[in-house]
Amino acid sequence: MKIPINKVGEQIDCSQNLKTKANHLFVFLQVFEQEGGIQSYVKDIFRAYLAFNKPLYAEVFLLRDSPNCSNPFESESLKFHYFKCQSPQLERVKMTIALLSHLVRHRPQHVFCGHVNLAPLVGMLCLPLGIPYTVMTHGKEVWEPLPTTMKSSLQKAAQIWTVSRYTRQVASASNNLDSNKVKILPCAVNGHNFTPGAKSTSLLERYGLAGAKVLMTVARLWSGDIYKGVDITIQALPHIAHVFPQVKYLVIGRGDDQPRLAKLAEDLGVGDRVIFAGFVPTEELVEHYRLADAYVMPSHEGFGIVYLEAMACGVPVLSGDADGSADPLQDGLLGWRVPHRDPNAVAAACIEILKGDDQRCDGQWLREQALTLFGMDAFQKRLQQQLLSQLKSL
Is 257:265 a contact under the CB 8 Å cutoff? Predict the structure, then answer.
């Protein structure tokens, strides 16, 4: 097996340990009382932080989480502060006061701001005190020109972290950022949670998929998120069905756009081929991924953690060709990339995948590549490298 070429960044040298006492402060919007890609990313940061060699210590401020939330990361290395209350304005006032007090009294070596919406507050408090800060970005929220205060807080940050080369490029151009300050910390996939396996007989029966070639998408079905490409995949189905008459499309997710998508399928004569599964809890996702013969999401993503989850389950993937998915798919080395609003291109690629003649359909090989580049070990090493570089600059 060839060693995969890392398209995300240079090879990481982690022979050094964090020998300098690290005193960090993290500030996030919400982590534990909402599910989503950003929340999963932050939890991976916590896991990696706790796995480092000591000494490491950080305090974590959570604007919209409450002390009653389920938090498995509270430890000697991570101390959490919660500010959720009935009034959003009061939440922000309470956190601002606590944050300023902490900065003045404890002078952390570095502050990590978990969302661009918090960057003006973090910048306003850190800059007069001479405390360096990093802003974490994720995708669409920084692709367009930002309000002046947000843009200024990004420009004055010691570093900006983002998840993909695409977001670094677009955000830097849109907001006049120094791209040398924008460091890539891509998403990760837990290879213990997402594994290959046989198709569940009960799920095949539940969704009427026995004997079918199954295409699958996991996405929010919101009218504001049509970029996910579920409608384009539905439009591709008639062409795919000419070659694979047994093809069906399993759509996992919920939202106000489902009626439009269902009507589109009916109008195209493929209503019986599209199954809307609704919301599926995270712990049940792996068995659903295993149902798929192809994971299809011709989208416009900041990164696309779902592609890694599918690959870790040994499922070949299809993405858009002008977004952050270039990183998990390694510029097409690990999957099919097509124009994201082109049903004909989606259909052609799906037919190739279902034929199964390409190495990118080899589930074991695909899983090995994905975990080598984006498993939790790789994520921990990248985060450690980022922290080492900041400690050296002190």
Answer: no
pLDDT, tens digit (0-9, with 9 covering 90-100), for 343-353? 999 999 999 99
**258-267 and 230-243 helices cross at what angle (nearest 10)?**
30
Q: Which pair of tokens denotes residue 103?
A: 């900065």
* Cis, bond preceding 132 (omega within 30 deg of 0): no
22-188+375-392 is classed CATH 3.30.470.10: no
Q: Which of 187, 184, 177, 173 is nearest to 303 (CA)?
A: 187
Largest Cα span, the chain: 69
Q: What letter would DSSP give residue 134? A: E
Which tokens belong to 327? Answer: 């990183």
CATH code 3.40.50.2000 region(s) in the chain: 22-188+375-392, 201-374
Closest CA to 194 of 297, 287, 333: 287
The pTM of the full predicted model, rounded to 2 decimals, is 0.90
Q: What is the pLDDT of residues 1-45, one digit of tens each?
A: 444 445 554 443 443 444 445 699 999 999 999 888 899 999 999
- The CATH number corresponding to 201-374 among 3.40.50.2000, 3.40.50.20, 3.40.30.10, 3.20.20.150 equals 3.40.50.2000
Three-state secondary structure of 238-250: HHHHHHCCCEEEE
- Write out the H or E segment, with its range, that includes residue 80: strand 78-82
Lowest mean pLDDT among 51-55, 249-253, 344-348: 51-55
> Residue 38's CB: how many other CB atoms inside 10 A?
22
3-class DSSP assignment, residue 29: coil
CB atoms within 10 A of CB 132: 17
CA distances to 43, 119, 279, 368 from 35, rounded to whole Å, are 11, 22, 12, 27
